[in-house]
Structure formats: C-alpha cells, structure tokens
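Hello,

I think I submitted the flavin-adenine dinucleotide job twice by accident. Can you confirm which output corresponds to this input? Input:
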Amino acid sequence: MPGDGVGTYRLSEEQVLLRDTLRQLADERIAPRAAEIDRTGEVPDDIRQLLAHHDVLALPFPEAYGGVGVDLLTVCLAIEQIARACTTSSLILAVQELGSLPIRLGGSDELKSRLLPALASGERLAAFALTESEAGSDVASTRTRAVRDGDEYVINGTKRFITNGSVAGVITTFAVTDPEGARTKNLSAFAVEVPTPGFSVVRLEHKLGIRGSPTAELAFENVRVPAANRIGEEGDGWKLAMKTFERSRPGIAAQAVGIAQGALEAAVAYARERKQFGGRIGDLQMIQAMLADMAAEVEAARQLTYKACAEVEAGATDAAKWAAMAKLVAGDTAMSVTTDAVQVFGGYGYTEDFPVERMMRDAKITQLYEGTQQIQRLVIARQLLGRPG
Ligand SMILES: Cc1cc2nc3c(=O)[nH]c(=O)nc-3n(C[C@H](O)[C@H](O)[C@H](O)COP(=O)(O)OP(=O)(O)OC[C@H]3O[C@@H](n4cnc5c(N)ncnc54)[C@H](O)[C@@H]3O)c2cc1C
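Support: Only one job matched these inputs. Its output is below.
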C-alpha cells in the first residue's frame, strides 16, 4: 500500500550525469553572475536563456508537449545544483514547475497542447498566483472573483507576492467561482495569458534576498479569460493547489539543500585558507565541530528531500506529509547552515566580499514561501492525527 513509506530511490546513471553536468554548468556560467544579480536586482534573462538552451526548463514537461519528461527527483537534482550557485537562478526552474503544475495536473488536453510547448521551451515563463493580501497562509480567504459570462470568465481582484508575475506569459490564477460554496470547494484555477486587457503589475517588492527574482503585486480588472482556460472543473482550485504543493514543496526543499551545500563548501574552503594564532582556523576544534554539524545537517536534509520525491512519485497516500517534512527540515537546515557559514568566515562573512551573507539572506525565503514552516507543521500534524485538510 502506498503511504507506508515504500517509495525508494537510488540515483540512476542518467540522474548522476545530469546532476554533475548541471553542477559544472552552474559553476562555470551561473555562479560568476550570482553576486551581480543580487547587487543589482536584475532579472537574469541570460540565465533563463541558458537554462532553456540546455533543456533544463523542459525537464518537468512531458515529451508529448516538447519536454524531457523526467521524474520529480530529477527536477529536484537540477534545482539543487542551480541553487548551490545562485538561488535566484534556481527559481526560474522551480517556478516554471510551480506555475505549470496545475495545468499539467488538471488541464484539458487542448489546454496542455496550446500552452505547455512554449513553457517547455522556456520561450514563455509561468507564474502561480494564489496569495492575496488577506489570503496568505489562509488560502481559503481568497477574494479574487471569476464570474462566468458566456464562453468566458471575468476575473477581478489582486494578487500579492507573485514570483515572475511581471515577466510570465502564463499566470495560473486562483479565483472564487462560488462565493456561497464551502471554503475548500469554491475556488477555481485559470490559465491567464498575459498581457491582456485589464491585467497590470501594480508594483514589485524590494526584498531581503532572491533579489533577481521579481515578486509582483498583480491587479485583475475585468480580465476576460476563455472558459477553455479554466483548469479542471469549477471548484477544483483548492484541490489543484494542494496537489501542486505536493510536487513543488520538494523543489523548495531541494533549493534549500542547494543553498546549504553552497554555504558549506564556501566555509570549508575558507577554513582551509584562513590563518589565525599561527595556524589554519580549520585546525581549531570549534570550527571543525561546526563544519561537521553543517555537513551532517545538509546530508540529512538532502536524503529526506530525495525520499519525499520517491514517496510523491510512488503515489503515497501521505505524499503531502513527505513534501511538508522535506521543506520543513531543508528550510531550517538552509537557515542554520548559512548562518554558521557566516560565523566560520568571521567579520568577512558579513561583507559582500564573500557569498555567504547572500546565501544567508536567500535561505530565509525557503522558510516562508509555498507555506511557512508553521503551515508545514500543520500539514504534518494533521496527517499524523488523522485530520487531513
Ligand atoms: C519572495 C516571495 C515570493 C512568493 N512567491 C509566491 C508565488 O509565486 N505565488 C504565490 O501564490 N505566493 C507567493 N508568495 C507568498 C507566500 O507563499 C506567502 O507569503 C506565505 O504563504 C505566507 O503568507 P503571508 O505572507 O500572508 O503570512 P501570514 O499567513 O500572514 O502569516 C504570518 C505568520 O503567522 C503564521 N501563521 C499563519 N497561519 C498560521 C496557523 N494557522 N498556525 C500557525 N501559524 C500561522 C505564519 O507561519 C507566519 O509566521 C511569495 C512570498 C514571498 C515573500
């Protein structure tokens, strides 16, 4: 029976090859750009093109729609390797996955054929618009409305904190279609193709980290969307969002593992070089203990993340719990390991001369988005106590 922890994994030769190839690509082409992207806050279109050119953005999409059609673990291996070099860049793949998942999970064949090829090629970017100013953790408080009008829906409302909302061509947008309906049954999802009349980007956030990843507030004023762009049936929105999180939260966990791995490697390299009291700081037992703890934490988070991928792929009945546990553990690991990395660097770690302060700022977001750490605990506890929902 799925749900009993039966999902197993062992990296295949292809997965190892992809992981190592991407690590090299990230070292050579992405890492050298990371500090500048962070400093200027530029949206790195060159990295989008690089990932598209190497078919990295195509990884999660089925071959029938121009993708490579790999499993979740392979997508996570890719996100991890990119995040090890640059968190902002890893979000290009993670959000292409997040924004397109509802379409892949619940869209009609016609909708998939129409929209997925340009997303798989990276020509268009996807975004996922669920959060609103009054509906953050409490998704069921969504106010954005979609009203059927003949062959179209008319959407009104605003969305907050939408990654890639200002650069995406397809925005998966969640809106209430049945205001009288039960809280988890009144939402529907729509693939909104932009630009379109009535749609606007209100503003972009200035953020602690992931500064090259645009986070947009979006307004929908009488935006007309063909009924054919509804994803699934009316009322499927909540279910689609939760199914999406089962596959996207392991991606954020992988991002967190990548950030932590990058910080660990930087700290080890520094501990080998930096001399105080006539010797390498790496010879000091207190530094050694910190590095050892960091390495153990990163590996534990990595293995849990890969295991969660295997459980999700195996169709485990408690897949949501596995996804939440991976994001919870990996997010906290990224925060603690990057903080310790700054400690290993001493005062230099606090400056822009080294990458660890950027990694520490970037790590924080993995404890917040796609459900805060508190929400992951709720998901896990509900599964344990038999109160799903
Ligand atoms: C950079 C960035 C990018 C984002 N990208 C996207 C995106 O692409 N698409 C999208 O839809 N959203 C996105 N988000 C939104 C993100 O998912 C939300 O910010 C997050 O879910 C939390 O919602 P909130 O900010 O409204 O916090 P709130 O829900 O107001 O939470 C405030 C605090 O209360 C705690 N809390 C809330 N409810 C409970 C509870 N029941 N039990 C215990 N504690 C609770 C929270 O954990 C948190 O500590 C993004 C956010 C950021 C910052």
